[in-house]
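Example 3.
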Amino acid sequence: MTAFNSEKNLERFVSLVSEHKSANHQLFTALEEAAIEGNLTKELYHLFAVNIAARTMLSLPEIHACCIQASLDLDPLRTSYSVMTGAEEGGSGKPKEVHTVLMMNALNYHGKTVFGLQPLNLKYFMSLVRLLHASKKYKQFLKLKESCSGISDEILSPFVNREELIDICKRTSILAEIQLPNEPWETLLDIEKVEKEAHRHLLTANVLQETIDYCLAQLDVLTNMKTGYLQGVGFAHEALADGMINKMFRIMYAQINRYPSEDDFMQNVYPYFSAHGNYIEVYNGLSENSEGVEVTHAQRELEKLSQLDNEAMSVAWIGTNDFANRNVRIWDGLMNAVESKIKTFN
Ligand SMILES: [Fe+2]
Ligand SMILES: [Fe+2]
């Protein structure tokens, strides 16, 4: 594959994301103002934390899907950059520094200290989302089977693999605490029950429908090996990350007076932020920008984009748009929930 995408072409991607509603959403300003004014309630923080966590739990798998795609393409630049980013997000050999772990520690410590909240269980959310995704696929499998009467599972397996779906359902249902029907699952009614239960559990846990839709789409992205699409999603994801983390920091730091000391915040919450950049220095006017790892990740994604041919690039453009739009729907959904819960936000 030849690198022939011009700087001008790449700039379109940068502008699309930086000018997108997702990058400058009013939700974060509203939440920061509420935190400063003491209006960020326990209920609102919980809603925010649940949806940020559920949204972000699929970032790491997406980055590793990029590694697989690039290495299958035998593309040295895309492979090495994806692996570097994947290693950084994955804690670089230190389990306690996996970004998802740092994020959960920060959100949960803040929830406990400021609001007396119980910790969120991310594995529970992940299990529910995967169970919902697998049960939807299983439904497609049954419908496909119904429309081709007499066809064997083996012939259908390249399209939908029944054994794999059953395996996912069995493993995820344990953590999701959902009872599965007895095998063989041969009727739509059986699997629809599982799908509805997983969906109900997610909504009950305060995961918004917009976040559920985002997660299901991200699970599809992981298996979408169409050259360019995953790359486009990867770019938007990384390019939006630094701004989002900075805004999360500002919301949480605005409640510093609810901590026993600044040291307590720095030791228990800040590690998530310091793993990404020097947000506290930006906040205090000591630095102009975060110089964060997500900025580097976005830069790498841009260079990876430059490796694509024009056809893959136009598919990447769709991926970038889709990701930014899916992301904004979560912020819109949260904003609606915020507005309906607190009138002082207007
Ligand atoms: Fe990260
Ligand atoms: Fe990143």
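The first helix runs from residue 7 to 18. Residues 89, 99, 276 surround fe (ii) ion (ligand 1) (CB under 6 Å).
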